[in-house]
Amino acid sequence: MGTLKVDGATLHYEVTGSGPVLLLIPGGPADAHAFAGFAEVVARDHAVVTYDPRGLSRSAVDAPGQVSVRTFADDAARLLDEVGGGPAYVLGSSGGGVVGLELLAAHPDKVRALVAHEPPAAGVLADVDAGFTRIHGTYLADGVGPAMGVFLNVTGLAGTSARMPEPPPEAMAGMMRNLEFFLGSMMGPMQDFRVDERVAALPVVIAVGEESEGQLAHRTAVALAESLSLKPVAFPGDHGGYTTHPEEFARRLREAFASVER
Protein backbone atom coordinates (compact mmCIF):
# COMPACT_ATOMS: atom_id res chain seq x y z
CA MET A 1 0.00 0.00 0.00
CA GLY A 2 1.37 3.40 -0.92
CA THR A 3 0.75 6.87 -2.29
CA LEU A 4 2.23 8.58 -5.32
CA LYS A 5 2.20 12.32 -5.97
CA VAL A 6 1.45 13.10 -9.59
CA ASP A 7 0.69 16.39 -11.30
CA GLY A 8 -2.50 17.67 -9.67
CA ALA A 9 -3.30 14.64 -7.53
CA THR A 10 -2.10 12.02 -5.07
CA LEU A 11 -2.76 8.40 -6.04
CA HIS A 12 -3.46 5.60 -3.59
CA TYR A 13 -2.25 2.19 -4.79
CA GLU A 14 -1.60 -1.36 -3.61
CA VAL A 15 0.62 -4.17 -4.89
CA THR A 16 -0.32 -7.79 -4.18
CA GLY A 17 1.55 -10.97 -5.08
CA SER A 18 4.75 -11.42 -7.03
CA GLY A 19 5.75 -12.08 -10.62
CA PRO A 20 5.24 -10.08 -13.81
CA VAL A 21 3.46 -6.78 -13.16
CA LEU A 22 -0.27 -6.68 -13.93
CA LEU A 23 -2.00 -3.29 -13.69
CA LEU A 24 -5.78 -3.33 -13.19
CA ILE A 25 -7.54 -0.11 -14.26
CA PRO A 26 -11.13 0.25 -13.00
CA GLY A 27 -13.86 1.98 -14.94
CA GLY A 28 -16.36 4.74 -14.26
CA PRO A 29 -16.68 5.76 -10.62
CA ALA A 30 -15.06 2.53 -9.39
CA ASP A 31 -11.87 2.33 -7.36
CA ALA A 32 -9.37 -0.39 -6.45
CA HIS A 33 -12.02 -2.29 -4.50
CA ALA A 34 -13.76 -3.21 -7.78
CA PHE A 35 -11.04 -5.81 -8.36
CA ALA A 36 -10.79 -7.10 -4.76
CA GLY A 37 -11.72 -10.74 -5.36
CA PHE A 38 -10.24 -10.96 -8.84
CA ALA A 39 -6.93 -9.48 -7.71
CA GLU A 40 -6.50 -12.37 -5.27
CA VAL A 41 -6.83 -14.84 -8.14
CA VAL A 42 -4.35 -13.20 -10.52
CA ALA A 43 -1.93 -12.40 -7.68
CA ARG A 44 -1.04 -16.10 -7.57
CA ASP A 45 1.35 -15.51 -10.46
CA HIS A 46 1.56 -11.72 -10.88
CA ALA A 47 2.49 -8.62 -8.95
CA VAL A 48 -0.96 -7.07 -9.16
CA VAL A 49 -1.22 -3.28 -9.00
CA THR A 50 -4.61 -1.83 -8.07
CA TYR A 51 -5.33 1.83 -7.46
CA ASP A 52 -7.95 4.51 -7.06
CA PRO A 53 -7.86 6.77 -10.13
CA ARG A 54 -7.46 10.46 -9.39
CA GLY A 55 -10.51 12.10 -7.88
CA LEU A 56 -11.96 8.83 -6.61
CA SER A 57 -11.99 7.52 -3.03
CA ARG A 58 -8.47 7.76 -1.55
CA SER A 59 -6.84 9.51 -4.55
CA ALA A 60 -7.42 13.21 -3.95
CA VAL A 61 -7.13 15.91 -6.59
CA ASP A 62 -5.56 19.27 -5.82
CA ALA A 63 -8.34 21.23 -7.55
CA PRO A 64 -11.72 20.47 -9.16
CA GLY A 65 -12.18 20.34 -12.92
CA GLN A 66 -12.41 18.08 -15.96
CA VAL A 67 -9.80 15.34 -16.23
CA SER A 68 -8.70 14.20 -19.68
CA VAL A 69 -8.24 10.57 -20.66
CA ARG A 70 -4.61 11.44 -21.38
CA THR A 71 -4.17 12.61 -17.78
CA PHE A 72 -5.55 9.33 -16.45
CA ALA A 73 -3.21 7.46 -18.82
CA ASP A 74 -0.23 9.53 -17.71
CA ASP A 75 -1.12 8.73 -14.09
CA ALA A 76 -1.06 5.02 -14.92
CA ALA A 77 2.32 5.39 -16.61
CA ARG A 78 3.75 7.18 -13.57
CA LEU A 79 2.38 4.45 -11.34
CA LEU A 80 4.07 1.77 -13.44
CA ASP A 81 7.34 3.68 -13.15
CA GLU A 82 6.87 3.80 -9.39
CA VAL A 83 6.30 0.07 -8.89
CA GLY A 84 8.96 -0.96 -11.44
CA GLY A 85 9.20 -4.39 -13.01
CA GLY A 86 9.48 -3.41 -16.65
CA PRO A 87 6.61 -3.22 -19.16
CA ALA A 88 3.40 -4.43 -17.55
CA TYR A 89 0.40 -6.47 -18.48
CA VAL A 90 -2.66 -4.20 -18.30
CA LEU A 91 -6.35 -4.99 -17.91
CA GLY A 92 -8.67 -2.03 -18.31
CA SER A 93 -12.33 -2.54 -17.49
CA SER A 94 -15.01 -0.35 -19.08
CA GLY A 95 -13.75 3.25 -18.84
CA GLY A 96 -10.50 1.75 -17.60
CA GLY A 97 -10.24 0.12 -21.01
CA VAL A 98 -10.42 3.57 -22.59
CA VAL A 99 -7.61 4.70 -20.28
CA GLY A 100 -5.66 1.56 -21.17
CA LEU A 101 -5.93 2.31 -24.88
CA GLU A 102 -4.59 5.82 -24.32
CA LEU A 103 -1.83 4.43 -22.08
CA LEU A 104 -0.79 2.05 -24.86
CA ALA A 105 -0.86 4.82 -27.49
CA ALA A 106 0.97 7.42 -25.40
CA HIS A 107 3.36 5.16 -23.46
CA PRO A 108 3.84 1.98 -25.53
CA ASP A 109 7.10 1.23 -23.74
CA LYS A 110 5.17 0.76 -20.47
CA VAL A 111 2.82 -1.93 -21.77
CA ARG A 112 3.68 -5.56 -22.40
CA ALA A 113 0.13 -6.36 -23.47
CA LEU A 114 -3.28 -4.73 -22.98
CA VAL A 115 -6.73 -6.23 -22.67
CA ALA A 116 -9.39 -3.51 -22.96
CA HIS A 117 -12.59 -5.13 -21.68
CA GLU A 118 -15.70 -3.51 -23.13
CA PRO A 119 -14.37 0.06 -23.42
CA PRO A 120 -17.33 2.44 -23.93
CA ALA A 121 -15.72 4.44 -26.74
CA ALA A 122 -18.64 6.72 -27.52
CA GLY A 123 -17.16 8.04 -30.77
CA VAL A 124 -17.59 4.77 -32.67
CA LEU A 125 -21.42 4.72 -32.54
CA ALA A 126 -23.66 7.78 -32.98
CA ASP A 127 -26.45 6.54 -30.69
CA VAL A 128 -23.94 5.91 -27.90
CA ASP A 129 -22.60 9.43 -28.21
CA ALA A 130 -26.17 10.74 -27.98
CA GLY A 131 -26.81 8.56 -24.93
CA PHE A 132 -23.78 9.97 -23.14
CA THR A 133 -24.98 13.49 -23.93
CA ARG A 134 -28.36 12.63 -22.40
CA ILE A 135 -26.71 11.32 -19.21
CA HIS A 136 -24.58 14.42 -18.80
CA GLY A 137 -27.51 16.73 -19.51
CA THR A 138 -29.58 14.98 -16.85
CA TYR A 139 -26.73 15.38 -14.37
CA LEU A 140 -26.45 19.11 -15.05
CA ALA A 141 -30.21 19.61 -14.77
CA ASP A 142 -31.21 17.20 -12.01
CA GLY A 143 -28.13 15.91 -10.21
CA VAL A 144 -26.48 12.57 -9.50
CA GLY A 145 -29.46 10.33 -8.71
CA PRO A 146 -31.51 10.94 -11.86
CA ALA A 147 -28.36 10.93 -13.99
CA MET A 148 -27.32 7.51 -12.71
CA GLY A 149 -30.80 6.20 -13.45
CA VAL A 150 -30.40 7.36 -17.04
CA PHE A 151 -26.85 5.95 -17.08
CA LEU A 152 -28.02 2.47 -16.08
CA ASN A 153 -30.79 2.53 -18.68
CA VAL A 154 -28.62 3.88 -21.50
CA THR A 155 -25.79 1.44 -20.82
CA GLY A 156 -28.07 -1.54 -20.20
CA LEU A 157 -26.27 -2.26 -16.92
CA ALA A 158 -29.34 -2.23 -14.68
CA GLY A 159 -29.60 -5.66 -13.06
CA THR A 160 -26.17 -6.87 -14.22
CA SER A 161 -23.05 -7.77 -12.24
CA ALA A 162 -21.55 -4.42 -13.22
CA ARG A 163 -24.19 -2.50 -11.28
CA MET A 164 -22.65 -1.36 -8.03
CA PRO A 165 -24.18 -2.96 -4.91
CA GLU A 166 -25.88 -0.70 -2.39
CA PRO A 167 -23.15 0.38 0.00
CA PRO A 168 -23.51 0.41 3.80
CA PRO A 169 -24.67 3.77 5.17
CA GLU A 170 -21.18 4.76 6.30
CA ALA A 171 -19.88 4.31 2.74
CA MET A 172 -22.72 6.13 0.99
CA ALA A 173 -21.09 9.56 1.26
CA GLY A 174 -17.92 8.31 -0.42
CA MET A 175 -19.91 6.62 -3.16
CA MET A 176 -21.83 9.83 -3.83
CA ARG A 177 -18.57 11.80 -4.05
CA ASN A 178 -17.25 9.30 -6.58
CA LEU A 179 -20.42 9.50 -8.65
CA GLU A 180 -20.29 13.29 -8.56
CA PHE A 181 -16.68 13.25 -9.78
CA PHE A 182 -17.45 10.67 -12.46
CA LEU A 183 -20.39 12.60 -13.88
CA GLY A 184 -18.89 16.05 -13.49
CA SER A 185 -15.20 15.52 -14.28
CA MET A 186 -14.72 12.19 -16.08
CA MET A 187 -17.65 11.49 -18.34
CA GLY A 188 -17.28 14.44 -20.73
CA PRO A 189 -13.64 13.69 -21.58
CA MET A 190 -14.47 9.98 -21.88
CA GLN A 191 -17.21 10.85 -24.37
CA ASP A 192 -14.81 13.00 -26.39
CA PHE A 193 -12.11 10.30 -26.50
CA ARG A 194 -11.09 8.96 -29.91
CA VAL A 195 -8.75 6.00 -30.07
CA ASP A 196 -5.38 6.39 -31.76
CA GLU A 197 -5.58 3.93 -34.65
CA ARG A 198 -1.88 3.16 -34.27
CA VAL A 199 -2.71 0.93 -31.30
CA ALA A 200 -3.90 -1.70 -33.79
CA ALA A 201 -0.24 -2.48 -34.50
CA LEU A 202 0.53 -2.78 -30.78
CA PRO A 203 -0.15 -5.67 -28.34
CA VAL A 204 -3.86 -5.11 -27.66
CA VAL A 205 -6.94 -7.29 -27.29
CA ILE A 206 -10.44 -5.80 -27.36
CA ALA A 207 -12.58 -8.00 -25.13
CA VAL A 208 -16.35 -8.44 -24.80
CA GLY A 209 -18.50 -10.30 -22.30
CA GLU A 210 -20.11 -13.52 -23.42
CA GLU A 211 -23.30 -12.50 -21.59
CA SER A 212 -23.46 -8.78 -22.40
CA GLU A 213 -24.42 -8.81 -26.07
CA GLY A 214 -26.65 -5.85 -26.88
CA GLN A 215 -25.39 -3.71 -24.02
CA LEU A 216 -23.78 -0.38 -24.84
CA ALA A 217 -20.19 -1.26 -23.91
CA HIS A 218 -20.37 -4.60 -25.74
CA ARG A 219 -21.54 -2.81 -28.88
CA THR A 220 -18.88 -0.12 -28.66
CA ALA A 221 -16.17 -2.72 -28.08
CA VAL A 222 -17.23 -4.67 -31.17
CA ALA A 223 -17.39 -1.49 -33.26
CA LEU A 224 -14.03 -0.34 -31.94
CA ALA A 225 -12.42 -3.68 -32.73
CA GLU A 226 -13.82 -3.55 -36.26
CA SER A 227 -12.51 -0.01 -36.74
CA LEU A 228 -9.04 -1.27 -35.82
CA SER A 229 -9.36 -4.42 -38.00
CA LEU A 230 -9.20 -6.57 -34.87
CA LYS A 231 -11.42 -9.47 -33.80
CA PRO A 232 -13.05 -9.00 -30.39
CA VAL A 233 -12.32 -11.78 -27.90
CA ALA A 234 -15.13 -13.12 -25.72
CA PHE A 235 -14.57 -13.33 -21.97
CA PRO A 236 -16.72 -15.14 -19.38
CA GLY A 237 -19.63 -13.24 -17.86
CA ASP A 238 -20.98 -9.83 -18.70
CA HIS A 239 -19.61 -6.30 -18.24
CA GLY A 240 -18.37 -7.24 -14.78
CA GLY A 241 -17.35 -10.79 -15.60
CA TYR A 242 -14.20 -10.64 -13.49
CA THR A 243 -16.42 -10.39 -10.39
CA THR A 244 -18.77 -13.27 -11.22
CA HIS A 245 -16.33 -15.62 -13.00
CA PRO A 246 -12.91 -14.73 -11.53
CA GLU A 247 -11.15 -18.04 -12.22
CA GLU A 248 -12.45 -18.40 -15.77
CA PHE A 249 -11.85 -14.72 -16.48
CA ALA A 250 -8.26 -15.01 -15.24
CA ARG A 251 -7.62 -18.01 -17.51
CA ARG A 252 -8.97 -16.16 -20.54
CA LEU A 253 -6.94 -13.11 -19.59
CA ARG A 254 -3.69 -15.10 -19.53
CA GLU A 255 -4.55 -16.60 -22.93
CA ALA A 256 -5.31 -13.16 -24.37
CA PHE A 257 -2.06 -11.69 -23.09
CA ALA A 258 -0.08 -14.61 -24.50
CA SER A 259 -1.69 -14.14 -27.93
CA VAL A 260 -0.34 -10.62 -28.39
CA GLU A 261 2.48 -9.93 -25.90
CA ARG A 262 5.84 -8.80 -27.14
Automatic annotation (TrEMBL):
Domain of life: Bacteria
GO BP term, example: glycerolipid catabolic process
Pfam families referenced in this protein's UniProt entry, alphabetically: Abhydrolase_1 (PF00561)
InterPro entries, sorted: AB_hydrolase, AB_hydrolase_1, AB_hydrolase_fold
Ranges of residues in domain AB hydrolase-1: 20-123
Molecular-function annotations in GO: triacylglycerol lipase activity
Protein name: Pimeloyl-ACP methyl ester carboxylesterase
Taxonomic lineage of the native organism: Bacteria, Bacillati, Actinomycetota, Actinomycetes, Pseudonocardiales
